[in-house]
């Protein structure tokens, strides 16, 4: 089934059934010729174990965060990364990250 119509600009448009290849925008490629895009897979979950202690799990590592009431935090990651951070008044914050040297 084909239907022909004209848009306001006078360009002819054709609506085709689902089996016919369609053009994808201005690229001139049909649906079958388009490259597939890789969608990144992300995962992150954080569990509060005790007040001030969090267990963070993501796709590649596990970390534990220790926090004080004044906004200071220290994070230890399974990848060797150590992060110290602090919330400061207003739009300010502090973060310092160090990475353990690899052993060769």
UniProtKB/TrEMBL annotation:
Residues 1-38, 69-104 are annotated as: Disordered. Residues 42-95 form the DUF4236 domain. Transmembrane segments: none annotated. Residues 74-85 have a biased composition (Low complexity). Residues 29-38 have a biased composition (Basic and acidic residues). It comes from the Bacteria. This is DUF4236 domain-containing protein. It comes from Streptomyces wuyuanensis.
């Amino acid at each position: 089934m084909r239907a022909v119509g004209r848009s306001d600009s006078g360009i002819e448009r054709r609506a085709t059934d689902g089996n016919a290849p369609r053009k994808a925008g201005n690229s001139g490629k049909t649906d079958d010729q388009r490259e597939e895009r890789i969608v990144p897979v992300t995962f992150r979950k954080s569990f509060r174990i005790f007040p001030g202690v969090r267990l963070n799990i993501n796709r590649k590592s596990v970390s534990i965060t220790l926090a004080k009431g004044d906004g200071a935090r220290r994070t230890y990651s399974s990848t060797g990364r150590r992060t110290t951070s602090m919330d400061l008044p207003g739009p300010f914050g502090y973060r310092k990250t160090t990475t353990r040297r690899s052993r060769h």
